[in-house]
Give the backbone structure.
Amino acid sequence: MNIGIDSISFYTAQYAFDLEKLAEARSVDPKKYLQGLGQERMSVAPPDEDAVTLGASAAHPLRRDGKLDDIDLLLFATESGVDQSKAGGLFIHGLLDLPSRCRVLEVKQACYSATAALQLAAAHVRGSPGRKALVIASDVARYELENPGEATQGCGAVAFTVAADPAVLALDPEAGYHAEDVMDFWRPNYRREALVDGKYSTRVYIDTMLHCWRDYAGQSGRGLEDFERFCYHLPFSRMAEKAQVRLARALHAEADGKRIEEWLEGTREYARVTGNCYAASLYVALTSLLDAPGKDLAQCRLGLFSYGSGCVGEWFSGVVQPGYRQALYTQQHRAMLANREPLTYRQYEDIYHFLLPEDGADHVLPQYRTGPYRLAGISNHKRTYEAVD
Ligand code: CAA
């Protein structure tokens, strides 16, 4: 029985900040961001947008199209949680009016958690093929101003359903994973901005990727040429190129720049203009690839590498299903990205410095451009969300 991704939808904030403007403000050569990191723009979440609204907006088209009518498991994968106790997925469960017979929980392990959620959802479906699960990965990536990580900030969410006989991607049974207690990137509870040991984090990413590959290849017997494309967790889009070069080198494969580009083609376009989406990032890469024009990927095998600092990594794979393009939201994704509002540097800083009140009093938030849901305010320490007409 095939199990995997049956539908997939991506959402990002309606405001975008151009990295050339950031480079000017930071007196940095823009080529460092555009070429060195491979980033052009970052999505910026306004004060009335958070991981919950981004996630609900990503899942909205699936709800509208009746794809969530029979889910009985909702896993919300995020490291931008809005409450220490209540799962953010419950706000989404309410906003989308999902079935009450449903297990709902929030999962966290930095940017890796959506992959754990996908595998847990697949196991849930395997237990009884009539079951269907919804995974929502959603994050807002935030560093201190003037930190080297600033140019990699971004936000976005991907919602996908997991079912038997999937329309988009059938998962292979093999998965190679690796965990290690390291401090490469973290965010203590008392901080809004992540802390990162930047260069070290990229080294740990690569080492973890190679550990996971050895585990995956040992189970599957597959080599590089068994894959049409490779999707990577993209903290910044050039990370994929660095990882693929190191993988090819470790396998003594003949791989010049052209071959590396072929393996990654289509996977980085969305990340390049949204920035890091943490838990959603690998699935933004997957959506970007599936939406890409050109080669029909039906029956092609994709390799996927998920990385979460701290750290856990996983290599897994799947086969794209015939007719997959009919199950996608390609036009909607393209229109959303094309219609974002550009920010000036001053607007970017103003939004950055906005602090949600913590006094528990009643606060109504100003209305910005958002998707179908927004954070309307706070009352008696309770967040109130609302649908936007
Ligand atoms: N023209 C062209 N390229 C230029 C350039 C110019 N004028 N100036 C610099 N570059 C290149 C550099 O050569 C470098 O490329 P290489 O890596 O190929 O050498 C690239 O631009 C970046 O330059 P630096 O390495 O000097 O940049 P930096 O040290 O200031 O910052 C970073 C890079 C450490 C990745 C930083 O952006 C950062 O801390 N990011 C956040 C952490 C992160 O994303 N880590 C990734 C792994 S951890 C993870 O994946 C989890 C997660 O999501 C956070």
